[in-house]
Amino acid sequence: MTYQKWEQDKEFMSLISDLLDRDEVQQLKEITQHYYSTRLDHSISVAYRSFSIGKKLKCDTRALARAGLLHDLFYYDWRSTKFAEGSHAYVHPRIACDNAEKLTALSDLEKDIIVKHMWGATIAFPKYKESYIVTMVDKYCACDEAISPLFTKMKQSFSSQWSRVKQSLSINTIPTNIK
Ligand SMILES: [Fe+2]
Ligand SMILES: [Fe+2]
User: Fold this and answer.
1) Ligand positioned closest to the Cα atom of 114
2) Under a CB-based contact definition with an 8 Å cutoff, are residues 124 and 116 in contact?
3) Confidence (pTM)
4) Average pLDDT, integer, range 125-131
5) For 152-179, how does the pLDDT look when each residue is reduced to its tens digit (9 = 90+)?
6) Cα 72 to averaged position of ligand 1 atoms, centre (Å)
7) Domains in the chain with CATH codes
């Protein structure tokens, strides 16, 4: 996970620790999300970024943290599992919401955050500003998780090639004190 400060944030931890301790949530560690992250990394990232933004905007930070953490609480492989009810974008938020309700009581706001987090790919508009925060943060995290490790790899490969070039240039340079 690229956003590590969450573990040191006592306020955030006090809001989610009961959920984070649950096996149903820890199981998300075993599932790959956006190529380079696990579903648990992704969920924590969405929860913490949403919580941090919500704090600045005076939103319901409890709902942002908890529903953010639970927004992708599903276990099926979307590449191979298809549903008659609709697309993965439509179905998985509803499954996540049902699963989340088995772990904790959800407010209407928390339900809306979870069910509408795929807004854009699904048409029903979120009802609350907190739901807009989570859907936008979810998209940002998905891009960040999928793309930034690629950039890091490219940067590392470029810098190692550049050091080789520099090394070979310094070997081939005639020292200025030789005449
Ligand atoms: Fe999702
Ligand atoms: Fe997500």
Assistant:
1) 1
2) yes
3) 0.84
4) 98
5) 777 777 788 888 888 888 776 666 665 5
6) 5
7) 4-171 (1.10.3210.10)
